[in-house]
């Protein structure tokens, strides 16, 4: 999958100390990309928007 047009962003909850963060790209049609911020040239996990929303909703549960 071509992710060259992805605009990556970190969570607003990520610290500025360069720690363990993920970056998300949600600007491509039909896919959500997720990658390790420490390895931007590394692998990318790709989700459908529905799967990503389900994951985020589950992660927000108390």
Give the tags.
62 residues; alpha+beta; four-stranded antiparallel beta sheet; 1 helix
What is this structure, in a nutshell?
The chain is of the alpha+beta class and 62 residues long. The protein has 1 helix and 4 strands. It is flat, with a radius of gyration of 12 Å.
Tell me what the structure shows.
The chain is α+β, with helices and mostly antiparallel strands. It has a domain at 21-59. It is built from one helix and four strands. It has one helix at 49-59, and strands at 9-10, 22-25, 32-36, 45-47. β2 (22-25) and β3 form a beta hairpin. It is flat and about 30 Å long. The termini are far apart. It comes from Micromonospora eburnea. Residues 6-60 form the DUF397 domain. Residues 1-23 are annotated as: Disordered.
What proportion of the residues is helical, as a percent range?
10-25%
Shape: flat
Q: What is the CA-atom radius of gyration, in angstroms?
A: 12 Å
Kindly state the number of beta strands.
4
Low-confidence runs (pLDDT<50, min 5 residues)? none
Structural class: alpha+beta
% residues in beta strands: 15-25%
Q: Could you report the average pLDDT, rounded to the nearest whole number?
A: 90
- Topology pattern, helix = H, strand = E: EEEEH
Strand order of the largest sheet: 1-2-3-4
Distance between the termini: 34 Å
Number of helices: 1
Largest sheet: 4 strands, antiparallel
